[in-house]
């Protein structure tokens, strides 16, 4: 029998938040185009024929067009050499119509991802992957922050308002999510623990947290009894489970066991429809900001 006293966490609707953010970006992009007589521009480079990357790149290009951002797609064969790719990046660095450059990862085997990222002009690096931007974030200078953690911060600030003094536990220490997430939360005055695969007593560490950000890439690893009652849970994981008879493509799950955690948490992001839609919205936001800086204009407030 269901327990009538059991509460279910608020579902943080990243999809709805992203729709609103994209509409605001669209309005600001139109103002920009009016002011400087060109649209903001994002160049997206895809090398090879990885199926998932093709879907992502298509979605990014469509989102740009919808928001009034020009998208310049460069699809190159898997056999492209490092030198050819670097030549394209250098051309895009010099192109005055291009405000942001995104080279879709992973690159085919044999191409040096770090060398390619290092070749991107840091002021066009809307992914925030360049070491200059990682350094700027580390020391609190203006730069570009990777899209996924910035999207998570926006959802957290929308839900909580001020994060000052809250205990935050980030699980996963990747350069793209975990590390920048810990820095953003620290800058927002949370008390941050960056946990990872070698953390001892991980469940106990997570139980201290008012805010949990899970970014480990392990399906449903974070269990309901790891969550402090009332905590806010942000699930960055997107994992596909093996196919079953009723789900022949396999079910998509996060890094958090959603149903269990939702019985304890105060608020939680679903998978899909939580963090995922925020990533593209923030990419558009970073491109719009890059365009303003590029044109010597102040980026719009509150984006
Ligand atoms: N591959 C998967 N996600 C991303 C992303 O956010 N940026 C880039 N460049 N490649 C990716």
Protein described:
The protein is of the alpha/beta class. It has two domains: 35-122, Rossmann fold (3-Layer(aba) Sandwich), CATH 3.40.50.10860; 146-276, NAD(P)-binding Rossmann-like Domain (Rossmann fold, 3-Layer(aba) Sandwich), CATH 3.40.50. The chain is 40% helix and 15% strand. The protein has ten helices and eleven strands. The strands form three sheets. A six-stranded parallel β-sheet has the order 1-11-8-7-5-6. Strands 3-2-4 form a three-stranded parallel β-sheet, with helices on both faces. The protein has a two-stranded antiparallel ribbon with strand order 9-10. Strand 5 (167-171), helix 7 (178-187) and strand 6 (191-195) form a beta-alpha-beta unit. Helix 1 (14-36) packs parallel to helix 10 (276-294). It is globular and about 60 Å long. The model has no long low-confidence stretch (mean pLDDT 97). Bound molecules: guanine. Guanine is lined by residues 102-105, 127, 147, 279.
Offer a few descriptive terms.
single chain, 303 residues, alpha/beta, Rossmann fold, 2 domains, six-stranded parallel beta sheet, 10 helices, 11 strands, 15% strand, binds guanine
How would you sum up this structure in a few lines?
It is built from ten helices and eleven strands. The chain has helices spanning about 15-35, 50-65, 80-95, 115-120, 130-140, 145-160, 180-185, 200-205, 260, 275-295, and strands at about 10, 40-45, 70-75, 100-105, 165-170, 190-195, 210-215, 230-235, 240, 250-255, 265-270.
